[in-house]
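tokens incoming
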């Protein structure tokens, strides 16, 4: 997909309107939590919980307080939750999962939910695998990131940022956070231009250097 189209789609999916010249990347910030889900001893999917920044949250929830009570209920946010998880399929849900060295394919998301806490909205959903994967004594590796760095994903603080649900006894998680907090300068003292980012596609995988990774090892 051409990058310009990718950005337009991302803007539409995420509900962001940019007036005038685009701002430097990233445009949206997410604090993420994840749980690797097991069924019958096999990896079955990923439970995601993404808390968006206040600016995005304010924009995307405009007009959703249908009963005008000054609060946004999960019921009022349900349509947005369903639409967002469906549309994010185009971007691979910003998730890569390998089990015993083999990259896994995802089925359609389930149980999408949104909730407002203070000035930030959180999207949660189950991202199931098309087929459960046997891990054995191999490693399950999950990465959460946007290849074009349009969206900045950062794992929540604490060891529970990535957890396990229904995992065999003895499985343990190791979290690896990106060493860099943002794009490096292309030249000394000169930040990367927006044109640089507009030239990126998902295949460029620029955002991989800012990926949040978790490794799950089982005995």
């Amino acid at each position: 997909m051409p990058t310009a189209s990718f950005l337009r789609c991302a803007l539409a999916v995420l509900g962001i309107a940019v007036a005038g010249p685009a701002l430097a990347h990233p445009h949206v910030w997410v604090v993420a939590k994840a749980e690797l889900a097991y069924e019958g001893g096999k990896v079955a999917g990923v439970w995601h919980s993404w808390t968006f920044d206040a600016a995005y949250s304010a924009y995307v929830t405009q007009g959703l307080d249908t009963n005008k009570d000054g609060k946004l209920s999960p019921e009022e946010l349900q349509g947005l939750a369903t639409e967002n998880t469906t549309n994010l399929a185009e971007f691979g849900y910003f998730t890569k999962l390998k089990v015993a060295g083999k990259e896994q394919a995802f089925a359609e998301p389930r149980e999408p939910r949104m909730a407002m806490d203070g000035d930030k909205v959180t999207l949660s959903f189950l991202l199931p695998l098309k087929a459960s994967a046997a891990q054995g004594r191999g490693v399950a590796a999950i990465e959460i990131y946007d290849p074009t760095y349009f969206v900045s994903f950062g794992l929540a603080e604490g060891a529970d940022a990535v957890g396990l649900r229904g995992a065999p006894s003895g499985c343990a998680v190791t979290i690896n956070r990106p060493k860099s907090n943002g794009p490096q300068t292309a030249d000394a003292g000169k930040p990367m231009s927006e044109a640089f980012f507009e030239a990126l596609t998902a295949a460029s995988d620029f955002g991989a250097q800012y990926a949040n990774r978790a490794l799950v090892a089982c005995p």
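note: The chain has four helices and eleven strands.
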